[in-house]
C-alpha cells in the first residue's frame, strides 16, 4: 500500500499539472472506481463538470482536491482519491493510448492538451465526492475528519502524540499504524523507523519514555523525508508519480524486505515474522524483543 511519501509525490504532481484547471467532462469507465460515490457515475460526472480544482491536499495517506466555489465561503466539496493497492493518478496527453486498466478520465476546459486519468489494476481504489468540514481552510473531506495529522504536518503535536501513545496500552507497531493516532505511517516506514530507533515492533507503548518517543518521531520524519527526496518506494510499476515514474527508496531500505541479509549496523541476519496479515522485518540483536511479563 502507498504510504505518506508515495502519496505526497502524487500530490505534488497534481499541484503542478492539475490544480487550478476547470473540469470539462468526466468519463467513468468502470463503476467500481466510483463505488464510494453512492449517487453513481452519472452524478459523479455531473457534479464535477464545470468545477475548478483547488490546490491538492494530503493528510497522511489520504489525498484530495477541493472544488473551488465563488465568493469567500471556501471549498464546500472535494474529490477524495483512495489509491488502494494499485491506484494511479496520471497526467497524460489526450492522444496517449488508454492504459489497460484505465477507470476514470477527466478532461479539462483549456488548451494544455493533457487530461487526468485514474488507472487501477486491482480496482481497490477509487475517486469520490464528499462534503468538506465546515470552516476547514484545507477543504478536508468530512469522511476523513477522524484521521490524525501526520508527522510532516507543521501542526503535528509531538507532546500530544507521546501522551496518547502511552495511553493506548498496545504495542509500538500497532500504534504507528493506527491512523487515528498518527497518519501516513504504514508497514514499510514503521519497520524502517523502528530499526533506526533500535526498538522492537512488539514493545509495549506504555514502556516508551519521552526521550525514546521523541527519537522515534525523529526517525519517522527522517526516513519519510529521505524517501520523498527520491520519489518514494516503488517495488513494481504500480507505485508511480503523475508522469508514470517510479521512486527509488527501495534501494535504501535498512529493514523492510531484507530477511536473512546482514543488518547494516551489526551484521546479524535480519529476520521476518508474520504480523497482522503482513510481515515485520527486524534485527534480533539491535531490536531486542520485550521480556515476557511475569504471571
Automatic annotation (TrEMBL):
Task: Enumerate the SUPFAM superfamilies for this protein.
Answer: Glucocorticoid receptor-like (DNA-binding domain), N-terminal domain of MutM-like DNA repair proteins, S13-like H2TH domain
Listed SMART domains: Fapy_DNA_glyco, H2TH
State the InterPro entries in the record: DNA_glyclase_Znf_dom_DNA_BS (IPR015887), FPG_cat (IPR012319), FPG_Glyclase (IPR020629), FPG_N (IPR035937), H2TH_FPG (IPR015886), Ribosomal_uS13-like_H2TH (IPR010979), Znf_DNA_glyclase/AP_lyase (IPR000214)
Q: Which UniProt keywords apply?
A: DNA damage, DNA repair, DNA-binding, Glycosidase, Hydrolase, Lyase, Metal-binding, Multifunctional enzyme, Zinc, Zinc-finger
Q: Which residues form the active site?
A: 2 (schiff-base intermediate with dna), 3 (proton donor), 61 (proton donor), 278 (proton donor)
UniProt EC number: 3.2.2.23, 4.2.99.18
- State the PANTHER family in the record: FORMAMIDOPYRIMIDINE-DNA GLYCOSYLASE
Query: Belongs to which family?
Result: Belongs to the FPG family.
Q: What is this protein called?
A: Formamidopyrimidine-DNA glycosylase
The species this protein belongs to is: Streptomyces hiroshimensis
Amino acid at each position: 500500500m502507498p504510504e505518506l511519501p508515495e502519496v505526497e509525490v502524487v500530490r505534488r504532481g497534481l499541484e503542478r499539472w492539475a490544480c487550478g484547471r476547470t473540469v470539462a467532462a468526466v468519463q467513468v469507465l468502470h463503476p467500481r472506481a466510483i463505488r464510494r460515490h453512492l449517487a453513481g457515475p452519472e452524478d459523479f460526472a455531473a457534479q464535477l463538470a464545470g468545477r475548478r480544482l483547488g490546490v491538492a491536499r494530503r493528510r497522511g495517506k489520504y489525498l484530495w482536491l477541493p472544488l473551488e466555489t465563488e465568493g469567500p465561503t471556501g471549498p464546500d466539496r472535494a474529490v477524495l482519491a483512495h489509491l488502494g493497492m494499485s491506484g494511479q493518478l496520471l497526467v497524460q496527453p489526450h492522444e496517449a493510448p488508454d492504459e489497460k486498466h484505465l477507470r476514470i478520465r477527466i478532461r479539462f476546459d483549456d488548451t494544455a492538451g493533457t487530461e487526468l486519468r485514474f488507472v487501477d489494476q486491482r480496482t481497490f481504489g477509487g475517486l469520490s465526492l464528499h462534503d468538506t468540514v465546515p470552516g476547514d481552510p484545507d477543504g478536508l473531506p468530512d469522511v476523513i475528519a477522524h484521521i490524525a495529522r501526520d508527522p510532516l504536518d507543521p501542526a503535528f503535536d509531538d507532546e500530544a502524540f507521546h501522551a496518547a501513545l502511552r495511553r493506548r496500552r498496545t504495542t509500538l507497531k500497532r500504534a504507528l499504524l493506527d491512523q487515528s493516532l498518527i497518519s501516513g505511517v504504514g508497514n514499510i516506514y514503521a519497520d524502517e523507523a523502528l530499526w533506526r530507533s533500535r526498538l522492537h515492533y512488539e514493545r509495549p507503548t506504555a514502556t516508551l519514555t519521552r526521550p525514546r518517543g521523541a527519537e522515534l518521531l525523529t526517525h519517522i520524519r527522517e526516513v519519510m523525508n529521505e524517501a520523498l527526496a527520491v520519489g518514494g518506494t516503488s517495488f513494481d510499476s504500480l507505485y508511480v508519480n503523475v508522469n508514470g515514474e517510479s521512486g527509488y527508496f527501495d534501494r535504501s531500505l535498512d529493514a523492510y524486505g531484507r530477511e536473512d541479509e546482514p543488518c547494516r549496523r551489526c551484521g546479524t541476519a535480519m529476520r521476518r515474522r508474520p504480523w497482522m496479515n503482513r510481515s515485520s522485518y527486524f534485527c534480533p540483536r539491535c531490536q531486542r524483543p520485550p521480556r515476557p511479563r511475569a504471571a
